[in-house]
Hints:
- This protein is mainly alpha-helical.
- Among the domains are: 9-55 and 289-345, no CATH class; 104-232, no CATH class.
- The chain has helices at 9-16, 22-53, 63-75, 81-95, 111-123, 125-135, 139-160, 166-182, 186-212, 215-229, 249-265, 268-285, 290-296, 301-319, 322-336, 339-345; strands spanning 243-244, 247-248.
- It has a two-stranded antiparallel sheet with strand order 1-2.
- A hairpin with a 2-residue loop joins strand 1 and strand 2 (247-248).
- The relative contact order is 0.15.
Amino acid sequence: MTSKLMQTPKDIQNLDTPMLTIDSLIEAQVTFVQHWLRKQAEPLSMEAWQWLGAQPLSKYISSNDLQRLLNDWLLDHPLSEVMRADIRDILHSLIYHPANDNVPLSELVDDTQVATLADYVGSHEQQRNILIHTLVGNETFADLLTQTLYHAINDFMENTLDKAGGVGKLMKLGRSSFEKATNRNLDEKLQTYLHRNIKDLARRAEANAQEHLSNEEVARLLVTGWARIKEQPISHIQTYLRDEPDNSSIDHIEASIQQSYNRLRMSPYLHSLVAAGVDTWYRNHQSDTIASVAASLHIDEQAMAQLNQALLPVINDALDSTWLTAHIREMLQAFYSQPNITDNLGFNNH
């Protein structure tokens, strides 16, 4: 009786299947990996988020990391020209948007907010006195009133007296005689007199207001002032701005923002405040998980699922891209080029 020879796996392969090569295997695996990743992209990303969210913040991020991020990414760089142009365009779009014509100021500030502020100012003596000084004892306002009265009196002297015949000539003669006798210009004397007396009157009015205006009256003044303007459309703000190519208020606003930002970002004062703020925040949250921190920004699993849906087209395009295909192929080639792999598998190299 003749016994049959045992067939090896290599013999079976030769009999039943075409010869596999490493190159053909790699190409099949590249296709499989890309297809598998496309199918699993969404659940994998959610599982990755769940894993990351469960990690403690302090495991990966320190207070110094956050400070370096703010300093290197934000404070060490001026606003770019692109960003400055965007700020100007956005401000212009917001300020001159047609919707501002139909929305009153009361949509921005609620009556209860004004009432709360009015009660606060009225019930705090220091703030109340500052407000009264701003409204009544303002030196700039006194100077403006002085100039207004002076121009009114001077206009009367110059124009009205010309029509007064002999009386007007007599008064002009008296003015000339006064200036010669005192060696002083009557206009200068008049301005000095008005300036001194109006400022004195403003100080007296301020003192009387601070002494006699009750907390309720001060609060009522603020509420009444708000009531007069709250129904004006937001577009009323445009009357205080210029929108000309060579004289744009928005350009001035943006330039001021940029100047202030550049001054502050290089200030040791701001850097010390940023460091203190980051340290305080980190001390409060270092034991939290990343998911807890994200939740404080309203980033939860539902938000991540929505983000995944938005990113899926990008992910699929990336998986189909030539650069990722090349990297997958290179990785597999490196794997199969290991001597122990090629020897043990027994595949042809070509």
